Amino acid sequence: MLSSSDFASASWELVVRVDHPNEEEQKDITLRVSGDLHIGGVMLKLVEQINIPQDWSDFALWWEQKHCWLLKTHWTLDKCGVQADAKLLFTPQHKMLRLRLPNMRTVRLRVSFSAVVFKAVGDICRALNIRRSEELSLLKPSGEYFKKKKKKEKNNKDPVIEDILNLEGSPTISGPRVSPGLYSKTMTPTYDPVSGTPASSTMTWFSDSPLAEQNCSILAFSQPPQSPEALADMYQPRSLVDKAKLNAGWLDSSRSLMEQGIQEDEQLLLRFKYYTFFDLNPKYDAVRINQLYEQARWAILLEEIDCTEEEMLIFAALQYHISKLSSSAETQGFTSESEVDEVEAALSNLEVTLEGGKADNTLEDITDIPKLADNLRLFRPKKLILKAFKQYWFVFKDTSIAYFKNKELEQGEPIEKLNLRGCEVVPDVNVAGRRFGIKLLIPVADGMNEVYLRCDHENQYAQWMAACILASKGKTMADSSYQPEVLNILSFLRMKNRNSASQVAPGLENMDMNPECFVSPRCAKKHKSKQLAARILEAHQNVAQMLLVEAKLRFIQAWQSLPEFGLTYYLVRFKGSKKDDILGVSYNRLIRIDAATGIPITTWRFTNMKQWNVNWEIRQVAIEFDQNVSIAFTCLSADCKIVHEYIGGYIFLSTRSKDQNETLDEDLFHKLTGGQE
C-alpha cells in the first residue's frame, strides 16, 4: 500500500548515464524526478549531482530506446513520454568526426551530432571555407569501398598511418563563432584567380578559422597524383548495379548523425551530391573549385563515369598540367594585375556554362528566333540493317528539327518533324577519325526513339549540338547561353584535336611523368607506358598555356559534357514490371535504364512533374506527370527516402537565384525532401 505522501509527490527514480569526456567509463546517476519536471530541470539536477565545475552547455539528453534527442528543454518528462524505464545518456552534442574530402584527404573536426545533417554540413563547409553547402552532403561508404584497402593492410606488416588534417579547434559548434564573412560577398576571403592562394589583404578573414593555422592551400591545391598501385587498390564499380550500390549510403538530411547511428570518430565521405554548381567564382571558391575538380578526377580515374579513350587522354593531359602547376613554386608567388585580368576574362565564358546562367553582355532580339538550315546525314537504327547514313536538308527552329529530301522542298511538308524537348542528347565524336555525330533519344509513349545525325566538320557540329542541348531543356537558340555553348563545344573539340605537327620534346619532360597515374587502370593496361606518355604529352600541347584555375574549370566543364554526367543510379522495381531496372536521377530528369544493357528506356522531365510522394508502408515512390502519365517504383539498392530526397533536392536547388540573399530557405528544403513521413 502507498502512503498519501507518495501520491502527493508522484515522484520516481530516473537513471541517467553521464558520458563525461575526461573519464574513461560512463557513470550512472540516479535522480528523483516527477512527470511535471521539464528537461532543463533534469539537466540542472544532473549537473548539481555530478558536482564537477566545467562548461556543460554543449551537453544534452539522448534517449537510447527511442533513438532521439530531448532538445526541447521546456517540455516536461510527461510530454516527452519519459518514464522510469527510459535509458537516457547525458552526452556532448558536438563530437569528433573524420571526413574524407573529394581530394581523398581526411580531416578530423568537431561536428554537431544533434543538428540535422543539412545544418551540420553547412557548419562543416563554413569551417572548410566551401560556399554553397547545399550542393554537398555526407555519404556512409559501403563495405566494398574499403574492402581492397583492408586486404592490402592485412598483407602489409608495417602499420598504415593515415595522413589526417586535424581541425579539432574547428568553429562548427555554433553559428556566431564562425566569421559571418565566409558567405558575405564583401568579406569573403579573396583568392588570386591564377594561383588559388588567398590575397594577403584578405588573409585576416581566416583569423577565426583553423585554416589560418594550417596552410589553407592543403584544401585549395590538388594533391600529388596517386601511384598506379594505390589506384588499382581502390574500389571501382564495374556495372550500373555496382554504381547504384555506391549511392546507397547518403545520409538523411532531415535527421541528425546520432539518429542515423553514426559513431564518434567514424569516417564519412563529404561529397558534392547535387550536380548543379551555382555561382562558381574563382575569386572566392578556390577550395570549392579544387574539391570539385578532385571529385571529377576520381570519378574519371575510378570509372564511376564512362568516357572514350580520346576523352580519357584529354582528362589525363589536364591532370598532368594541373599537377605540374600545383607543384611549381612559381604559382605560389604573387601575380601582376594584368595576368589576373586576363584569367578573369578567360573564365567569364566558362562561368556561364558552369552556372547555367546568362552572360550580361549578350543582347539579343528575342522576338527573332534564329534557325539553322544545312545538309546533314541521318540514320535510324533498325534490326538487321547496317549503319547507312542518308543525306537530307535539315531545318532547326524553336526546339524542333524538320528534315526534307532537299533544300528546294523546304517550304512544303517535311518528311518528319522531331520535337527535342525532353530528349537525351549524346555526343558521338571521334576527332581523329573526323566523325562528328549526334545521338538523339527522343521520348515517345512506349519508350525512346533513337536518331543519329552526322555533321561534316567541327563548326557545323558545334552549332547543331549546342542547339540540340538547349532544345532538350526547352530553350531556343535565342537564349543567351547558345553562343557560349557553341564556343565551349569548339574548345573541347580543339583539346581533343591531336596536333601531329607539334613535336613533343623527348627526354626530360617524358622522365617526370608516370602516365599510369593520370588514366584509369583499365586504360593503362591497354598501352605501354612510353606510348601512353607520348599520347598524353601530345594532348598536353593543346592545354599547355592554361593557367591553374582555368585548367581546373576546363576539367570540370569537360566532365560536365560527358553523356553520363550528373546521373545518380539506383536499382528499382517499377510497378507492374517483373524485372529490376536502373533509375538514373539527374538535375532535370529521371531516366529508366535497362539494368542488363545500360540502354535508356524512357525519360521523364521534372518540368512535367505535377506531384510526387512516398507510401511509407510499402516504401514506394509515386510520381505524376502531365498528360496523365504516372509511375511508381520501390527502391532495391537503397532506402526510398534517399531517392525521394534527391528529387526534392534538385527541385529545391532550381529555385536559387543570384538576386536572393545567400541564406537558404531550410524549411523549404525539408518540405520538398522530407516526404511528410
TrEMBL record:
<dbReference type="InterPro" id="IPR019748">
    <property type="entry name" value="FERM_central"/>
</dbReference>
<dbReference type="GO" id="GO:0033625">
    <property type="term" value="P:positive regulation of integrin activation"/>
</dbReference>
<dbReference type="Pfam" id="PF00373">
    <property type="entry name" value="FERM_M"/>
</dbReference>
<dbReference type="GO" id="GO:0010629">
    <property type="term" value="P:negative regulation of gene expression"/>
</dbReference>
<dbReference type="GO" id="GO:0071636">
    <property type="term" value="P:positive regulation of transforming growth factor beta production"/>
</dbReference>
<keyword id="KW-0966">Cell projection</keyword>
<dbReference type="GO" id="GO:0042308">
    <property type="term" value="P:negative regulation of protein import into nucleus"/>
</dbReference>
<dbReference type="InterPro" id="IPR019749">
    <property type="entry name" value="Band_41_domain"/>
</dbReference>
<dbReference type="InterPro" id="IPR035963">
    <property type="entry name" value="FERM_2"/>
</dbReference>
<dbReference type="GO" id="GO:0071711">
    <property type="term" value="P:basement membrane organization"/>
</dbReference>
<dbReference type="GO" id="GO:0051546">
    <property type="term" value="P:keratinocyte migration"/>
</dbReference>
<comment type="similarity">
    <text>Belongs to the kindlin family.</text>
</comment>
<keyword id="KW-0130">Cell adhesion</keyword>
<dbReference type="GO" id="GO:1903691">
    <property type="term" value="P:positive regulation of wound healing, spreading of epidermal cells"/>
</dbReference>
<dbReference type="GO" id="GO:0005178">
    <property type="term" value="F:integrin binding"/>
</dbReference>
<dbReference type="GO" id="GO:0042995">
    <property type="term" value="C:cell projection"/>
</dbReference>
<dbReference type="GO" id="GO:0090162">
    <property type="term" value="P:establishment of epithelial cell polarity"/>
</dbReference>
<dbReference type="GO" id="GO:0051886">
    <property type="term" value="P:negative regulation of timing of anagen"/>
</dbReference>
<dbReference type="GO" id="GO:0001954">
    <property type="term" value="P:positive regulation of cell-matrix adhesion"/>
</dbReference>
<dbReference type="InterPro" id="IPR040790">
    <property type="entry name" value="Kindlin_2_N"/>
</dbReference>
<dbReference type="GO" id="GO:0090090">
    <property type="term" value="P:negative regulation of canonical Wnt signaling pathway"/>
</dbReference>
<dbReference type="GO" id="GO:0030511">
    <property type="term" value="P:positive regulation of transforming growth factor beta receptor signaling pathway"/>
</dbReference>
<dbReference type="GO" id="GO:0005829">
    <property type="term" value="C:cytosol"/>
</dbReference>
<dbReference type="GO" id="GO:0043616">
    <property type="term" value="P:keratinocyte proliferation"/>
</dbReference>
<dbReference type="GO" id="GO:0005925">
    <property type="term" value="C:focal adhesion"/>
</dbReference>
<protein>
    <submittedName>
        <fullName>Fermitin family-like protein 1</fullName>
    </submittedName>
</protein>
<dbReference type="GO" id="GO:0007160">
    <property type="term" value="P:cell-matrix adhesion"/>
</dbReference>
<dbReference type="InterPro" id="IPR037843">
    <property type="entry name" value="Kindlin/fermitin"/>
</dbReference>
<dbReference type="InterPro" id="IPR001849">
    <property type="entry name" value="PH_domain"/>
</dbReference>
<dbReference type="GO" id="GO:2000647">
    <property type="term" value="P:negative regulation of stem cell proliferation"/>
</dbReference>
<dbReference type="InterPro" id="IPR037837">
    <property type="entry name" value="PH_Kindlin/fermitin"/>
</dbReference>
<dbReference type="Pfam" id="PF18124">
    <property type="entry name" value="Kindlin_2_N"/>
</dbReference>
<dbReference type="GO" id="GO:0007229">
    <property type="term" value="P:integrin-mediated signaling pathway"/>
</dbReference>
<dbReference type="GO" id="GO:0033630">
    <property type="term" value="P:positive regulation of cell adhesion mediated by integrin"/>
</dbReference>
<feature type="domain" description="PH">
    <location>
        <begin position="377"/>
        <end position="473"/>
    </location>
</feature>
<dbReference type="InterPro" id="IPR011993">
    <property type="entry name" value="PH-like_dom_sf"/>
</dbReference>
<keyword id="KW-0965">Cell junction</keyword>
<dbReference type="GO" id="GO:0071944">
    <property type="term" value="C:cell periphery"/>
</dbReference>
<dbReference type="GO" id="GO:0051015">
    <property type="term" value="F:actin filament binding"/>
</dbReference>
